[in-house]
Amino acid sequence: MDKIVIEGGRPLHGEIAISGAKNAALPLITATILAPGPHVLHNVPDLRDTRTMLALLESFGITWKRDGETLTIDASNLDNVEASYELVKTMRASVLVLGPLLARAGRARVSLPGGCAIGARPINFHLQGLSQLGIQYELDQGYVDAGIKGRLQGGTVYFDIPSVTGTENILMAATLANGTTVIKNAAKEPEVGNLIDMLVSMGARIKGRDSETIVVEGVKKLKGAKATIIPDRIETGTFLIAAGAAGGELTLTHCNPKLLPALPEKLRAAGLVIKEEKNRMHVLRKKGALRSVDVKTMPYPGFATDLQAQIMALMTMADGLSVITETIFENRFMHVAELRRMGADIRIDGHSAIVTGTGKLSGAPVMATDLRASASLVVAGLAAEGVTEISRVYHLDRGYDDLVGKLSMVGARIRREKE
Ligand code: EPZ
Question: Domains of the chain, with CATH numbers?
């Protein structure tokens, strides 16, 4: 296993190109199962999770080739519909193959993903939604064994919580159903919109993009897709926060400021200067203390839960008290214990973390527990006095394409070593 070593206290200066969004690439890769293709996806990030998803599709008989950021996928051969525990246990988003496999082949046997560090992460909404489309399923030795005789039937699916991958799974299944499907209380994250654009390019009939009610008119078959993955709004936010923590100024290119409706205002309130252009963002950390801000994570367009750990790291250095409330996941404070090791003053009270800014952090050996917790430890390490060693960085590799290389290019003293 590798570790990351950071010598903190060096301001960042320069330009970073943002990669394609992990949470768009994953559903768009699975959507290629819906039709033989060939499919062409542009701006696909090269991440541990995208490699896992491609390995999963390969296990179904699907072939692909990568040329830089462009993926060409040929799904004409689908001779297996079982997603093994070996692959699924490393990536919960594997559940996204359920809808497409059922729509294309009428059968799917997908391992239950199991829990993860940030919560139980059940898939009941996915299964309830698919049942509304006529799917029968049973749980068998840790697998969901699902099937339908003939085509899926259009129906109405209501989500108690606007589940992102739940919406994506039902959306994909509904494109080939017989009749109309209405998805109510659907997720409005930009990655869902990116998937809708791709499905429409394949011939799907979908209304209600970016709204909480999506209507899908099923069609008999779909054609090969041409789609471009949207910029990663969470990578963008992570670098904006990193510049706030380390000091200096950064220009982020190949990004889309419109995908970040909440974070810039919070960072401006904390004292950063943020400028937004069409596909660039500039961030400047002015001299003087950061101001504390309160944060509450909400479904899009609220503050993204995937940026909660990172802004908490920033608030540990601000002047005053910051209340950070996590409303999406039940256990997404795994980074608190590690930040405390660096001198942070954080008290957890139910779903809220009360952060008392101490102005500074000290480098220490810490351990990554999940993807965004590891990003928050990098943010803290950049600002801390002394050396921070972050172990188990395979978590980071799931969602960031060459984070160490990108930060080194803008002046961070950061390197990767064998543990
Ligand atoms: C997606 O996860 C993202 N992953 C997550 O990003 C992100 O944090 C999350 O949406 C919220 O924005 C991908 O898109 C691949 P949910 P997802 O279903 O779809 C509960 C990252 O760091 N729930 O919107 O799994 C669930 O437990 C990852 O990039 C059920 O109870 O999230 C959670 O409390 C982490 N039953 C809430 O709903 C279900 O069937 C929202 O989860 C499904 C979800």
Answer: 2-19+231-418 (3.65.10.10), 22-228 (3.65.10.10)
Q: Which atom of ligand 1 is nearest to the CA of 372?
A: 22
- Judge contact between 379 and 313, C-beta under 8 A: yes
End-to-end Cα separation, the chain, in angstroms: 6
Q: Which atom of ligand 1 sits closest to the CA of residue 329?
A: 34
Closest C-alpha residue for ligand 1 atom 10 = 164
Please tell me if the CB atom of residue 399 comes closer than 6 angstroms to any atom of ligand 1.
Answer: yes
CA-based R_g, the chain, Å: 21
Active centre residues (catalytic):
116
pTM: 0.98
238 lines ligand 1 (CB under 6 A): no
- For 54, 285, 394, 414, the CA distances from 387, given in Å and listed in that order, are 37, 22, 20, 10
Task: Strand 180-184: give its sheet, edge to edge.
Answer: 156-158, 180-184, 213-217, 205-207
The token pair at 155 is 């129906």
Please work out whether the CB of residue 126 comes within 6 Å of at least one atom of ligand 1: yes
Integer Cα distance of 383 and 7 in angstroms: 9
| pLDDT tens digits along 171-225 | 999 999 999 999 999 999 999 999 999 999 999 999 999 999 999 999 999 999 9
Q: Residue 20 pLDDT more than 80? A: yes
Let me know if 166 is exposed, middle or buried by CB neighbors in 10 A (0-12, 13-18, 19+): buried
- What is the 116 CA–ligand 1 centroid distance (Å)? 11
Q: Is 294 exposed, middle or buried (0-12, 13-18, 19+ CB in 10 A)?
A: middle
Index of the ligand 1 atom closest to the CA of residue 120: 27
- The C-alpha atoms of residue 186 and residue 162 are separated, in whole angstroms, by 5
Strands of the sheet containing 345-349, edge to edge, are 295-296, 321-325, 352-356, 345-349
Calculate mean pLDDT across residues 258-267: 98
When the pLDDT of each residue in the chain is averaged and rounded to a whole number, the result is 96
> What is the pLDDT at residue 358?
87
317: its two tokens: 């250095």
- Tell me if 121 CB under 6 Å of ligand 1: yes
Mean pLDDT of 229-234: 98
